[in-house]
Amino acid sequence: MNPQDNHNPIQPSAFEPLSAHAPQAQRQRHPWRWALGAVALLFLLIMGFLLSARSLQISVQASAPVDIDIDAITLPFGNRYLIRPGVYRVRATAEGYHPLEISVTVTDEDSQRSELVMAPLPGKLDIVSQPSGARVFIDEQHVGDTPLQSLSVEAGTYTLRLQAERYLAHEQQLEVEGRNSSQQFTIALQPGWAEVSVSSTPAGAQILLDGEVAGVTPAKLEVMQGEHQLMLQHPTHADWQQDLEITAGMAQDLGNITLQAAAGLLQLDSQPSGANVTLDGEFQGQTPLELAVSPGRPHRLSLSKPGYRRFSEEISMQAAQRDTRTVRLSARLGEVNFRISPAQATLRINGVPRGTGSQVLSLPAVEQRVEIALDGYATVNRRITPRPGLQQLVEVSLKTEAQARAARIPSQVISALGQTLLLFDPAQSPNADFTMGASRREPGRRANEVLHPVALRRSFYLQTTEVTNAQFRLFDPKHDSGQIEGNSLNRDHQPAVQVSWQQAAAFCNWLSKREGLPPFYRESNGIITGYNPSATGYRLPSEAEWAWAARSNGATLLKFPWGDTFPPVDAVENYADNTSAYVTGRILSGYRDGHVVSAPVGSFPASARGLYDMGGNVAEWVHDVYIIPSANGDTETDPLGAQSGDNYVIRGASWSHSRIGELRLSYRDYGQAGRDDVGFRIARYAE
Which residues are in the PEGA domain (predicted)? Predict the structure, then answer.
């Protein structure tokens, strides 16, 4: 050691820990490094997003500005968005539209497109009509009556129709804008009538429009559009009538009508009644009846009845004169020997008691209704025609009720298709002999409804309803009854229509063969060529059977299914009612039956004879070849007509009919091809 060192001892230096200076240095360097790192990281994220993102174009169908919201990180460029692949929820909202939310899948393709269709909110419609109270239909759906306010309707194109009583229906295309916007429509309905002016000489004639009183002449009438029948009636003059074709808004002036002096009216009866009456050689009907006699000149009146001597005399009457006359006919008699057991049985001739037991009676040489009855025994009914100079023998041995029941035929039968047919025995009816057709004075009467006498003797079965589509398709699976203005005629329980007479007759033969019955109609190569009147197979009802079943009501003959007054008050049959105007064009004003076209069979009350739809729903084919009967012919018994012909008779009204002439039960039509308002029902002889 250096001695000098002892003079300079080592002195400790001041000690400062490194930590006292290091933080200050670090704090000076840390901020810019972190900032630089953050920028680098953000750059990497942005580049990563740009490199992995795909272009998605979102196209929206809407006429208002649309707000788009996507549950993802996106970079929008107009309607294009940069977005990473994946599945995202996209929401779109716009004023006037329902909010839309869908799921969009973004794939690895560079450019993709998604189209959004936004549903507009319903529009608000205000519909006003002149007059108010019109029924409003949108696409055939009734939405209310005018005035309608703020009616909510989805956007789109519709058919708007307005209907009001006595006005023409209005129809137009309706464009609903939607988007909660309001639209106003004011519609003036056009009147459905026209003015008809009519006067007469003499004045004061009662005016009947379609059978209803409408005023007295001279008059101006408001007549609804369509076909109508106008009639003038005056107490001392003959009725005058004319068919009118009315176009709404087009007035008609019928001018002054000179009425002819009224015929004299003779209430003619005979003893016995039922005599055939001719006036100047022209058949008028059977007694009792009312005869119209031209005034101021003589006429030859004749009455005849089988079994009685002809009566003839000359008559004349003044204008509008009324008279009553009863002619007593002289009988030609024949003897009938009745041998009856038991002896206590009562004998009635034409309903009049003639004693009990066996006896010999002198009776007019005309068909007589014989009834032999005794309590506890079945009544026997016979018909005999006495012959002058030749005694006839009638032997009757009554059977007990039990014996008679065993011998009786069934009161109804059920076909193989489930159709119910009721038994009818006209011979037991007071109207077994009746007059078909209608008087020339009857309103609506047509020229083919000539009065002529017929008699029904054979009992027969008649279907209670018309043949349905379901039943007819068992015969012809391809059958289609069609539809009218969107109203179906082809439902199972509606009557089968668009069926020709040949098809209806072929159906009857097919059903007969199915049940082992002898076919009524003769066929050759699938064509009906004639018929066998003795066969008991199924057939169409004869015109006489149809008329008797439809009109006979006890001892009277109905004019209409509901009675003798027109128009009907209640819904008794299916006719062209108020709801059918757009299909039929003409309607039975004020009548409502609830069906635009044909109804399911049996929808209305049955007649007194248990038959449905005889006077409505669809008209019906009957068996007979169409002819116009002779006014001077003899009484025909169980007539069936010619074996074949070009046209066949159609009876009864249908859903398309409304006029007084068509709704009468004596109305006749004809044809051969199928129609949308013509069907049929089946019949067969009981034995």
Answer: 124-191, 193-252, 265-329
Domain limits for position 501: 412-685
Please give the Cα distance from 683 to 465 (Å, whole number): 11
Residues 569 and 617 in one domain: yes
**Digit-coded pLDDT (tens) for 587-641:** 998 899 999 999 999 999 999 999 999 999 999 999 999 999 998 889 999 999 9
Q: Do 180 and 220 sit in the same domain of this protein?
A: no
Residue 10 lies in a domain: no
- The total number of residues written for the chain in this structure: 687
What are the tens digits of pLDDT across the range 391-442?
999 999 998 875 575 467 899 999 999 999 999 999 888 889 999 999 999 9
- Count up the domains in the chain and report the number: 6
| Listed residue (377, 292, 299) closest to 343, CA to CA | 377
Alpha-carbon span 479 to 499, nearest angstrom: 9
Alpha-carbon gap, residue 627 to 127, rounded angstroms = 55
> Domain for residue 25, yes or no?
no
Are 267 and 292 in contact by the 8 Å Cβ rule? The answer is no
Which DSSP string corresponds to 383-439?
EE--BTTB-EEEEEEPPBHHHHHHHSPPSEEE-TT--EEEEE-GGGSTTSEEEES--
CATH number at residue 282: 2.60.40.1120
Pairing status of strand 135-138 against strand 141-145: antiparallel
